[in-house]
Design a protein that fits this description.
- It is a single chain.
- The protein has 167 residues and is an alpha+beta fold.
- The protein folds into two domains: 51 residues; 98 residues, 3-layer Sandwich (Rieske Iron-sulfur Protein), CATH 2.102.10.
- It has two helices and eleven strands.
- A four-stranded antiparallel sheet has the order 2-3-4-9, with no helix packed on it. Strands 5-6-7-8 form a four-stranded antiparallel sheet, with no helix packed on it.
- Strand 2 and strand 3 form a beta hairpin.
- The structure holds FE2/S2 (inorganic) cluster (FES).
- FE2/S2 (inorganic) cluster binds next to loops.
């Protein structure tokens, strides 16, 4: 019965129910509009920062590596044969090293270009656990969530020492 008393109170001050509803809708609309404008401003600012690379200072899908980042291939049994893969971390960058030949390797960023998940090795593919983007061992997108290819770093190999330099 409270709503009847409230209605009676409103009638006693002269405000009709439809005026109250209209005022309420107006308040909701004003708040909604304000919220929309604030959120739009935030989204625009984020877009602008992304566009100029201000978030993180570099391409987040291709994290910077320490200078002179190296691994010794001989320390990774998975790299002893062509097609082998080693998952390593260089500085803070998650990287996949793939042996593509007797003396050739590629190094791929494991940061998914879709939304930054860290891809994992699954059989002969890399799969992102976040939305399922799938890449071959060359880093090319081959299925699942649509995305561009994994970033590839430059490599140079010294077969004498087994040192692979990634940059
Ligand atoms: S973040 Fe990798 S598929 Fe979405």
């Amino acid at each position: 019965m409270d709503h009847i008393n409230a209605a009676a109170d409103c009638r006693s001050c002269g405000t009709t129910e439809s005026q109250l509803l209209a005022a309420g809708n107006g308040a909701d609309s004003a708040i909604g509009r304000r919220t929309f404008l604030v959120q739009s401003g935030i989204l625009a600012a984020i877009a602008a920062l992304n566009a100029c690379g201000s978030l993180g200072g570099s391409d987040v899908t291709a994290p910077n590596l320490p200078s002179n980042a190296t691994i010794n291939v001989n320390n990774y049994s998975s790299l002893s044969s062509v097609g082998g893969v080693a998952m390593v971390t260089l500085g803070t960058a998650p990287v996949a090293i793939v042996r593509t030949g007797t003396s050739s390797f590629i190094a791929l960023s494991r940061v998914c270009p879709h939304q930054g998940g860290i891809v994992q090795l699954s059989g002969n593919d890399f799969v992102c656990p976040v939305h399922g983007a799938t890449y071959n061992l060359s880093g090319q997108w081959i299925g699942g969530q649509r995305a561009s290819s994994l970033h590839q770093y430059a490599t140079s190999y010294d077969a004498t020492t087994g040192t692979l330099t990634i940059s």
